[in-house]
Amino acid sequence: MYHPSKYDAHNKALENMIIKFNDTAKIVGNELKMYSQVKENYRDDGGIEYLATGQKVLYDFEKRHNYYNGCGGLAFKTLGQFERKILKQEIKLSIQCSTDENCFIIAWHEDYKKEDKKYINSATQDGRGERNAKRFTEDFIEIKYSDMGIFYNILLNAFKEKSFNKKSFL
């Protein structure tokens, strides 16, 4: 993690999302379960399991501390993801929650892979920064935490149709 001081906030935000998702799942069908990695593996943050088959989709989760303060507030027309995360074949989904944790954005790595890499500068906590490849996509969707059923249905559709890309967006 390039901002160690934000680790606790990240973990709490992820835990809140998992609780909200699993509570929603129990109401709308209970076919999916979201979980976080019990032990830090420096690869993915967790997964969503399709209980009917045991198939899992692993995700990368990030709580945004800038450029996405709340619903409708993403400061960009495209959503970016570091190439180092996209290269991890086991991860299929990026989830970025807003600073206020009222909304989140999802994008499938398959959709990022259609775009060219761009090398950009990014801030790090130590102030040295980094210059790494990043990909951007317009194929993302924002969901309110209060509409968690939408996320559930997108994921269920993705599993049933075996379509882990923008086609899963209902």
Distance N terminus to C terminus? 33 Å
In the CATH scheme, what's the topology name?
Trna Endonuclease, Chain: A, domain 1
| Largest sheet report | 6 strands, mixed
Number of helices: 4
- What is the CATH class designation? Alpha Beta
Named CATH architecture: 3-Layer(aba) Sandwich
Runs in which pLDDT lies below 50 for 5 or more consecutive residues are: none
Structural class, from secondary structure content?
Answer: alpha+beta
Topology summary:
Elements: H1 7-28, E1 32-36, E2 46-50, E3 55-63, E4 79-82, H2 83-86, E5 91-97, E6 103-108, H3 109-112, E7 118-122, E8 130-137, E9 141-144, H4 148-161
Parallel strand pairs: 3-5
Antiparallel strand pairs: 1-2, 2-3, 4-8, 5-6, 6-9, 7-8
Helix pairs in contact: 1-4
Q: Can you describe this structure?
A:
By secondary structure, the protein is an alpha+beta fold. It has one domain: 3-Layer(aba) Sandwich (Trna Endonuclease, Chain: A, domain 1), CATH 3.40.1350. The protein has 4 helices and 9 strands. A 6-stranded mixed sheet has the order 1-2-3-5-6-9. Strands 4-8-7 form a 3-stranded antiparallel sheet. Strand 5 and strand 6 form a beta hairpin. The longest helix is centred in the N-terminal third of the chain and has 22 residues. The chain is globular and about 45 Å long. The mean pLDDT is 91.
